[in-house]
Fold this protein.
Amino acid sequence: MASRTTAIERGEETGPTSRRSGRLVYRQSIWTRLTHWVWAVCIFFMVTSGLMIFNARPDLYVGQQSGFGFDNTVLSIGAERTGDGGVRGVTRVFGHPFDTTGFLGVSGSADNPTIRAIPAWATIPSYYDLGTGRVVHFFFAWILVATMLVWWISALVNRHLWRDIVPGGKDLKRLPSDIGDHARLRFHHTRSYNVLQKLSYAGILVVVIPLLILTGLTMSPGVVPSWSWLLDLFGGRQTARTIHFVCMLLVVLFFIVHVLMVVAAGPINELRSIITGWYRVDDEESEEEGAR
Amino acid sequence: MSDGPSFNRRRFLATAGAGASMLSLGGCDAFDAMLGQNDRVRDVLASANQLTYRAQRLLFGEEALARTYAPSEIRQQMRPNGSTSPNQDDYTKLQKNDFADYRLEIGGLVDKKLSLSLDELRNMPARSQITRHDCVEGWSVIAKWTGVQLSRLLDQAGVKPQARYVLFHCYDSMGATLEGVQYYYETIDLISARHPQTILAYGLNDKTLPVSNGAPLRVRVERQLGYKMAKYIRSIELVSGFANINGGNGGYWEDQGYDWWAGT
């Protein structure tokens, strides 16, 4: 194992070819592959339209209501006049101001700055239109919930959830060595996910996306009269809105790391497995299987 | 207009956003062209709102009450939003006289037309509730509302079987078009209209409803977003549909592309 070089050391291009000796295993079921790509589309449209909706009131609060006559703001994105007659973008996190000119609060070119919380390139639609942002967001919300339902049923029936996603005691024991491997960009290509993969997939699928759906429902005045436990669970509509936003950030973070890891671990092999299901494992796979 | 998105800010940001979208190179503006009003892609996406309406009506009880709060939760003034000072002559004339000459007309598909003064409304059994107002923009404010249940007035007028929606005509102008002055208007279905917490409010936080919050009368529809809760109510009409009223979408903001149900 120690003699094995990493994908990065060999370069991305040569990575998969130099492992030709490894056999192909059927790693991803049709349900995993289908839901993966539907989610990819959903998350793109939901994050961008959600940022449009956020632009209507780019402030986050804790509690049941928004403090206008008192202060319960935890995040606020705005613009301020500067002494020389210009504007600068200011993002306040727990009251601490950060200059975010060019990105948050004020974006666009220096000669023609635009005052808006989230810049146009990150929202759908790119122009300010709350009504249209809501149309896009709620359409993909239904698709996301339906896909989630399909995934839960299939993952429970084909045991994908317990076999591949939720980490067990053995996985957790490997956590320190797995963190070390990731830090050195050493990737083992095996049938099963490594423990950091399991933790991040379980975190997104079992924790973050369900939280996004539940906090979204908590913000709905048509839902909470009947499901008022949601208001108690999240500590109020405005806290739910804040959690919804934080979960969105986690999804974006996951997406960035996920794509970087795919590139680092050998994009051709990884993409083949999530499109066709077939994944080329390392030669040592037989030993790994035995260890499990 | 009701507590919908602020008109001036919306217009300002729309202009600012349009400028930004011209500047952005290959961002999310790639989808802008499909999302304009009356575009087919947009219509398909918007059909999900009908699903949301039906799902919420199916899953959740017609009588379920919106959460009410303790008086200690009233920690600030009710935030005025949308129109805050209508300047139409017929409204300012009523305002000068403290709305003593105001009459609420209830007509349309009813057995008996009603015309009620504010005193007559105040002398009817009142209902007070401390509830959370949820604006479509994302903010919420808790306030105490006092008024008469709309169901009581509907029973007095007698709703004809073919009536399906309650239409609120308002005093506040949203600007002029070629067809004339565009007044704020809204529609709700009869389930919302007959909900026990749906009241025509004349009181806010134990005082007379101020002009900025919709005096003399605004509707509270506690299980839907703020823009459903029409302010400055001129008259109420029972209708069988709203396809032929103004933009045909059942409300001022709905005609601007906002969903009619507004339960999410």
